[in-house]
Design a protein that fits this description.
The complex is a heterodimer of chains A (300) and B (812).
Chain A lengths: L7 E4 L3 H11 L3 E4 L5 H6 L7 E4 L9 E4 L2 E5 L4 H6 L1 H6 L2 H7 L4 H6 L2 H7 L5 H8 L3 E6 L2 E6 H4 E3 L2 E2 L6 E8 L4 E8 L9 E10 L2 E10 L9 H7 L6 H14 L10 H24 L13
Helix pairs in contact in A: 10-11, 11-12
Chain B lengths: L9 E2 L26 H5 L15 E7 L5 E7 L1 H4 L4 E6 H6 L4 E3 L5 E3 L5 E2 L5 E7 L2 H8 L3 E6 L28 E8 L1 H10 L2 E9 L11 E6 L6 E5 L4 H12 L6 E4 L15 H13 L3 E4 L2 H7 L6 E9 L5 E11 L28 E9 L16 H19 L3 H8 L8 E2 L5 E2 L4 H12 L1 H16 L5 E11 L11 E2 L2 E2 L2 E7 L5 E5 L8 H13 L6 E4 L17 H28 L6 E4 L2 E4 L2 E7 H9 L12 E7 L8 E11 L4 E12 L6 H20 L31 E4 L17 H18 L10 H8 L12
Parallel strand pairs in B: 1-33, 2-15, 13-14, 17-18, 25-26, 32-33
Antiparallel strand pairs in B: 2-8, 3-7, 3-9, 4-8, 5-6, 10-18, 11-16, 12-13, 12-15, 16-17, 19-20, 21-31, 22-23, 24-25, 24-30, 27-28, 28-29, 31-32
The chains are: A alpha+beta (300), B alpha+beta (812).
């Protein structure tokens, strides 16, 4: 059996309490929510925190709601809840697309959106989704709250803008009209990390792209996106040719690394192909109203 | 799941036979019944090695080498020994003191238990820490300071024999290179002539990559050397408890009667639990050193990185045929990667196992194979994962070569197979490499599979899908892949086969209690195959005793007769035969006792299931239960007839049994991403009569899933430094239900003529037969002659680009 090193365990009762405990323990403390990334790392002794602060009891972090012109998602919302959430389903089916391909039901029952974003794994899916949607992250400390754009939230692999005595408490997504969104991921097997993944939203003004967002996972895209491709699309037609051109830009812009999931040329190819597919589906959904997830993907 | 025009179906023959039912509703004899084991497994009441808890028991953990090839200059264990709760730290030096730092392997090589000189593969056992619990032991293991001096590693088998290759086995005096053996079978001259005369010759290199059986339960042991009685009891994850007991006696010099090996419930073996691992030896030594029971239970990384792998065969096949597709010859050259120690479990005379059965299911006169085995800086092992002693590799080779030939001839692969299959009247059939197939009706099985699949309609659909692809309307292609396999299971005749000098015959004892209930003691050991059910059904079939009245005892050397254990699908062919033989002996003895009780001549009695009766007067008779009581009672028995109703036997199989089958796999391939979806899988198996069809189907289901795993995702690759790239289930991918279609199973029944009840083994058939069907299907879809497993999305896409991946090394 793989067993972790000795650690202390504390259970926080409120956000303020959690921040106080984080302040007291400094950088030797780690926050635990779903634990499905942290615990395996501890068992492999890749992570050796001295103290775990359990935030599962924290009130006020498990909401998904419309808040003005934004969707607000509490940091403790589980993957399974995101998958089934009617508000997210109505506005952004990209969430359900991604969640169906994240791990397996057991992990989805425990893992949280906050944990996913804070893990800052370059192959993680929800980070790419929130990046595509140009969302933002609300971070709380003893001094109050601050908001960081998702595209600035990750400061490097496994590193985020969250400081030692801070807690990610909410993820916010702008609400848009005439919008469609989609996520495509290739994995070697159900539950594997992405070989490559791409998410997109497309906001239409007639047949013209009014706004667009791209999120790219596992392909070494800076900030998990590709601004050049986004800029090339805005103001142009939502056409197959435009999407193919955006795919080509993404193909050239990403810098994946070779591993057992595939060589660089294949991952580059996938980044482009999945971008094309995500844009195509997003535009189709935008045209047809925010339709439910397509039936052929129902069992994916 | 993708919907299909052909819903999953089942086509079985045995189910139609009428079998009387017991009061409990079980078949009295062969037939479907729920497993007797289920009651404890489904309630979480199984008893696995890790469930064993003894008073005062300590826990040991292994410190493993972080690199593949390195000289150890020193090991400092003082900081580990100083940790509170640590009882002892074993190193190679400690073991050297008791002559156990090296141990023999199943191939008469030697293997390091704990390193004394240098590390030869990443994950090799360096030290063994014994503490109050595993948390303390792990903490202490991290405090051991090892001074490693890294050496260049051999991770690529193709470089193992290069002039400048580092010498791995410098422990063996006189050794100057990394070659283990060169071995050949078949007739080289005849084969050369067949190729010289051939109209068509196709050559293809292929790799059957290194995979791992990855049982759900990892390996482990609890050793307890009782300092008072001097008896050593080992609870351990072994598929062969008796063989282990003898090996412990021979290697450690312990008296065999003072060793008891108990193999309790085992969470999957698949060949992974045949050999003896360093951890077992360390737990034994640990118990002797500390005077307390010592448990060792390896973690997942340890299991994947250090225990017996499977395959790793680099094969170059050549197939010869006439212009019209009559196959005339086959030859193959193999480079076999055995890792750092030759730990292959194999019947002694065959260093490449049963690989030379590679001529498969077809009729041609000439064949020849050469196998060259090498050492590399990778984990030892080599026969595991339900492989039937390398028949997996052999079937993959021939079934890929037949598809390559079909491609060359532009001939339908089903037609080419049908044209060349052995015919029923050719059995018993002796292959060009010396195997005698016992029985078979191959064309019937293939035709059945084609009919179940709706083969012609599938080919029509495939053409439509291809047309849409060619027109740019879709990125999808569709593939149809076939394989036909002949297995050889039930090792084996003792004059031909042994393991380390131990003949492969198996004992069996049957005792009928006075009330007619029975206890059967068998030498083989279940790792989930349902022996407690099927062996009871064999006795039930032969004696008419309800299966719920028969207790099956296995897995404890003090309470079962000697035998070589369960692997190579040998339980039913060997021990199953033994169970039938002891049942027949009981029946014969019951006849004498019944005749005595009925005051008639034994020759006047006739048998019906469960009862001897007087010929012509069926109301006068005695049930087997009545006879059992009489056998234990005051009845005066004829002179020379002993009381009670017991029998025992040792079964020496006259030949292997040869199950076979025809498999068809339908895949959908997204050419733009390389993703493969297995849409349908049709499997027609012939393993003779089925004792419990439900259990047979379960074994086939598991093997088919194995096949999808190996064909599409499973591989243990290494980088050039010998770093293991598959040391966790995040990296070593096993298939899930999501990758499997609803299996469509069919059956033909061709009994074995030499087995007492005609049955053949089936445990490995689907694992052997399915990988080539999946690979043939994917390659059929994308129109590429060959690409190596696993056909991950990247591998499929690269094959379509004309630059296939080398799957045994790190992808660069």
């Amino acid at each position: 059996m793989q067993v972790p090193e000795t650690f202390d365990y504390e259970r926080a009762s409120t956000v303020e309490d959690a921040i106080q405990r984080l302040t007291a323990h400094g950088d030797e403390a780690r926050v635990i929510a779903g634990g499905h990334s942290l615990l395996p790392m501890m068992k492999l002794r890749l992570a050796v925190p001295e103290v775990l602060i359990d935030i599962n009891d924290l009130p006020g972090l498990d909401h998904v709601r419309l808040d003005g012109d934004e969707l607000a998602i509490g940091a403790l919302v589980r993957h399974a809840a995101i998958l089934d959430d009617p508000i997210l389903g109505e506005h952004y089916p990209i969430f359900a697309d991604a969640e169906r391909k994240i791990a397996d039901p057991l992990v989805r029952n425990r893992g949280t959106i906050g944990g996913s974003l804070c893990q800052a794994d370059p192959a993680e899916d929800l980070s790419a989704v929130v990046t595509a949607l140009k969302g933002s992250c609300v971070i709380q400390s003893a001094n109050g709250r601050r908001t960081v754009p998702m595209r600035e939230f990750h400061t490097g692999p496994w590193e985020t803008a969250v400081g030692d005595a801070e807690l990610l408490v909410e993820v916010r997504i702008p609400v848009r009209t005439s919008v469609g969104s989609s996520y495509h991921k290739v994995e070697r097997r159900v539950g594997d990390w992405a070989v490559a993944a791409a998410g997109a939203f497309v906001q239409l003004d007639g047949d013209t792209i009014a706004a667009v967002g791209l999120g790219l996972s596992a392909v070494g895209a800076p900030d998990m996106t590709c601004p050049d491709a986004e800029q090339a699309l805005v103001g142009g037609p939502a056409s197959a040719e435009a999407f193919a051109e955006a795919a080509r830009i993404v193909h050239d812009a990403v810098s994946p690394t070779a591993d057992q999931r595939g060589p660089v040329d294949y991952k580059r190819h996938l980044a482009g192909e999945l971008t094309r597919r995500a844009l195509t589906d997003a535009a189709r959904r935008a045209r047809s109203g925010s339709d439910p997830v397509d039936s052929e993907e129902g069992n994916a | 799941m993708t919907t299909t025009d052909n819903p999953p179906q089942s086509d079985t023959e045995a189910d139609t036979t009428e079998v009387p039912l017991s009061d409990a509703g079980n078949p009295i004899g062969f037939g479907r019944m729920l497993r007797k084991e289920d009651a404890r497994f489904l309630r979480g009441q199984g008893n696995y090695v890790d469930d064993v808890r003894l008073p005062g028991m300590l826990t040991g953990v292994i410190l493993r080498a972080p690199m593949a090839h390195a000289r150890i200059n020193s090991i400092d264990t003082s900081a580990a020994e100083a940790v509170d709760g640590v009882h002892a730290v074993l190193t190679g030096e400690t073991l050297e003191g008791v002559g156990l730092s090296w141990m023999p392997t199943l191939s008469n090589d030697t293997q390091s238990v704990l390193v004394t000189d240098k590390v030869r593969f990443q994950g090799q056992e360096v030290a063994f820490v014994i503490a109050d619990d595993e948390y303390i032991a792990q903490d202490a293991a991290q405090r051991i300071v090892v001074d490693y001096e890294p050496l260049p590693a051999v991770a690529d088998a193709k470089q193992a024999l290069a002039d400048d290759a580092p010498l791995i086995r410098d422990d063996v005096e006189g050794r100057t290179d990394n070659k283990i053996y060169d071995w050949e079978a078949g007739n080289k001259d005849e084969t050369d002539r067949a190729f010289a005369d051939a109209d068509v010759v196709v050559r293809q290199e292929m790799l059957y990559p290194r995979t791992h059986p990855a049982p759900m339960e990892t390996c482990g042991s609890v050793a307890h050397m009782d300092p008072v009685t001097g008896k050593l009891v080992i609870w351990t994850t072994t598929q062969a408890p008796h063989a282990h007991r003898t090996l412990y006696a021979l290697v450690a010099g312990l008296p065999e009667h003072k060793i008891q090996v108990i193999s309790p419930d085992i969470g999957g073996g698949f060949g992974n639990k045949v050999g003896i691992y360093p951890g077992y030896v360390c737990s034994v030594v640990g118990s002797i050193v500390t005077g307390k029971p010592v448990k060792w239970m390896e973690d997942r990384a340890g299991n994947l990185m250090s225990t017996s792998f499977a395959r790793d065969y680099h094969m170059t096949g050549e197939i010869a045929s006439t212009a019209d597709g009559t196959i005339t010859g086959l030859r193959v050259d193999v480079l076999a990667d055995h890792g750092a120690f030759n730990g292959v479990a194999q019947p002694t005379k065959y260093p490449a196992g049963f690989f030379h059965i590679f001529t498969g299911s077809y009729d041609y006169g000439a064949a020849h194979c050469n196998v060259r085995a090498v050492y590399t800086n990778k984990a030892p092992g080599g026969v595991a994962y339900a492989c039937s002693f390398r028949i997996t590799e052999a079937v993959y080779l021939v079934e890929r070569m037949v598809d390559c030939l079909a491609d060359e001839l532009d001939m339908d692969p089903a037609e080419l197979r049908m044209k060349n299959l052995l015919q029923p009247e050719q059995f018993p059939y002796t292959t060009p490499t010396g195997w005698e197939y016992d029985s078979g009706d191959y064309p019937r099985a293939l035709q059945k599979a084609l009919d179940m699949a709706g083969y012609e309609a599938l080919r029509d659909e495939q053409a439509d899908v291809r047309a849409a692809y060619d027109n740019g309307e879709s990125t999808m292609l569709m593939g149809i892949g076939l394989s036909f396999f002949t297995e050889g299971v039930g090792a084996g005749p003792r004059k031909h086969m042994d393991i380390l000098g131990l003949g492969m015959a198996d004992g069996c004892e049957l005792r009928i209690h006075p009330t007619g209930k029975a206890i059967l003691r068998i030498s083989v050991q279940s790792q989930g195959q349902g022996h407690e059910t099927t062996f009871a059904q064999i006795v039930s079939q032969e004696l008419g005793i309800p299966p719920e009245d028969i207790e099956v005892v296995h897995g404890d050397t003090d309470n079962t007769p000697f035998g070589l254990g369960t692997y190579g699908s040998r339980s039913t062919p060997v021990s199953g035969a033994a169970a039938a033989v002891v049942s027949h002996r009981i029946r014969d003895k019951a006849r004498i006792i019944a005749a005595t009780a009925l005051e008639c001549d034994p020759d006047d009695l006739e048998w019906e299931p469960g009862r001897w009766f007087v010929r012509g007067a069926p109301e006068q008779g005695q049930t087997i239960q009545e006879t059992a009581f009489a056998a234990h009672g005051s009845l005066e028995l004829p002179e020379g007839v002993e009381g009670h109703l017991d029998a025992q036997t040792v079964y020496n199989p006259p030949n292997l049994t040869y199950p076979f089958g025809a498999y068809i796999c339908v895949t959908d391939v997204d050419t733009a991403t390389g993703e493969v979806k297995v849409r349908r899988f049709i499997a027609v198996d012939d393993c003779g009569p089925r004792i419990n069809p439900m259990i047979v189907e379960g074994q086939v289901h598991g093997g088919l899933a194995d096949g999808i795993g190996m064909a599409l995702m499973e591989v243990m690759a290494f980088d050039r430094d010998g770093n293991h790239l598959g040391g966790s289930f995040m990296d070593y991918l096993l298939p899930t239900s999501m990758e499997c279609p609803s299996w469509e199973l069919g059956e033909t029944v061709t009994p074995s003529p030499h087995h007492p009840i005609g049955v053949k083994g089936v445990g490995e058939s689907a694992t052997v037969g399915s990988p080539p069907a999946v690979v043939n299907s994917v390659l059929d879809a994308i129109g590429v002659r060959h690409a190596d497993m696993p056909l991950t999305p990247a591998a499929v896409w690269r094959a379509m680009q004309g630059s296939p991946l080398r799957t045994d090394l790190a992808i660069e």
